[in-house]
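$ fold --in a.seq
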Amino acid sequence: MFPNETKNTERPLTGHVPNIILWAIIALALVGFTDSAFLLAKRVSGAPIPCFITSGCDAVSKSPHSVLFGIPLATWGVLFYLGIGFLALLYMDTKNLIVGKLIVVATTLGFLSSLYFIYVQKFLIKAFCVYCILSAIISTILFALGIVIWQKLKMDVAQLES
């Protein structure tokens, strides 16, 4: 920039995340929350988990691998999906770059966790839970939306730097 030149920060940022993507994240977070809350309720009550398509839901939920730091994975799922939904609402309201980046980080961690949990089901427990697979699918879609958000945020940063 030349000495008397100022950045044009008044022009609208073109890379902002469209609300439709944020609403999709919120909807997916709601489905994931419901899925995780259902599994948590079944775990707490000790009731069997009705399993259609696969037959390993109880084997997976009663496995020693279904707990992390002494807390059932379903609890972590509830917290994850609540957090993702909250971040999407917060970003929708504030358009804060840090919040947008947190969405990207959280969806990436959720996806990587899901990959690991699918591995555990396949190779360690040798059984699949349809509800866990649903959560993995939701996490994968959230990750894909996180990539879209990342691309939009990169456009914002590039525009601010120009």
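$ fold --in b.seq
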Amino acid sequence: MIFEVTIVDQHSLILPDEIVRPFKEAGHQRVLAKARFNGKEVDFHAALQNDKNGLNRMTFGKTLQKKLGVFINDYFELQLFEDRSKYGVEMPEELNAVFQSDQEAFDRFEMLTPGRQRSIIYSIKRYKNSQTRIDKSLMVGENLKKGISDLKLILKHN
């Protein structure tokens, strides 16, 4: 079902109960979303959250706002889908290749909490250059094998 939303609090969306309820009842706290505005479209993974007032919220950060070309008070279309990805976000090819070639690094990654896994994935995805993603993915693999999973340290030479 496609519905209209607007940005509130600079980076979040309030979602209607009737849209969110089926996902939550099925045990899904993360969704795949498609936003559309003025001929532009952006797909993203997101968490379904409840605020202190019981409202259903979803983060829609500045990067997504810029890609879609929306500002606060703009109304745009949103559609939610079941997130069938393993980690709640798409794994970058470069990080996946490191894990396919390094079982120990992959095993260490798999032992992390889902939130920590997503944070590592997002930290690699933010690099635009493929070679940088490769270098950082290799560094993540080596640091995981050393027992380092702190996000402040995992992308640094140790």
